[in-house]
Each structure stands twice: as C-alpha cells, then as structure tokens.
C-alpha cells in the first residue's frame, strides 16, 4: 500500500465535507471519507480509459477534459449549488 500526503484548498475541503454530509457518511473521518472517495473515483475513471502495457505496468491514454467545465473548477458555493440542483432534477425525474 502507498501512502499519500497532500493538502486540500479550503474550497476543496468544504466540497469534501459537503459530499460527506450528503452521502450520510458520519461514520467516517474526513481522511477516511477522502480515501474512499478517491478510491471510488479512480476505479470509475480507470474503467473508462483505454489501457496499454507500459511504465509501472500500466499506461493510460488520458481523455480530453470536458469542454464545458471551467478550467479553474467550481468554487465551493458554485459546487454546492450545482449539486443541489442536480439532486432536485433527480427527485423530479423520480416523481414522473
């Protein structure tokens, strides 16, 4: 197992805890939730990327970033608003 040590910006930390609350993962610490989230995201991303043998056993061909996503990402308030809007849309679709 490899250990990673890094710092998150205040906005990313707020996003992390917003997601933790929305996903009702109060049973995990922030670090545990971040690790779980990263593992899930890596698995999701990796499963969509063509893979070839190469450096360190695997070499991924990286897809181009989405054109409609801002290059700086979203601020925590923008992220929260987008997430709540997505949840509301999903609720309406479920009701139909």
Radius of gyration: 16 Å
Q: What about the largest sheet?
A: 2 strands, antiparallel
Order of helices and strands: HHEEH
Shape by Cα distribution: globular
Give the strand order of the largest sheet, numbering strands 1, 2, ... along the chain.
Answer: 1-2
| Secondary-structure class | mainly alpha
Strand content: under 5%
Estimate the helix proportion, in percent.
40-55%
The residue ranges in which pLDDT falls below 50 over 5 or more consecutive positions are: 54-63
* Number of beta strands: 2
What is the compact description of this entry?
It contains 3 helices and 2 strands. A hairpin with a 6-residue loop joins β1 and β2. It is mainly alpha-helical and 96 residues long.
């Amino acid at each position: 197992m490899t250990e990673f040590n890094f710092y998150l910006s205040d906005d990313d930390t707020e996003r992390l805890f917003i997601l933790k609350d929305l996903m009702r993962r109060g049973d995990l610490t922030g670090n545990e939730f971040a690790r779980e989230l990263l593992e899930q995201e890596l698995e999701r991303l990796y499963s969509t990327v063509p893979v070839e043998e190469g450096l360190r056993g695997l070499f991924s061909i990286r897809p181009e970033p989405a054109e409609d996503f801002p290059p700086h990402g979203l601020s925590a308030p923008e992220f929260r608003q987008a997430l709540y809007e997505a949840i509301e849309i999903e609720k309406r679709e479920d009701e139909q």
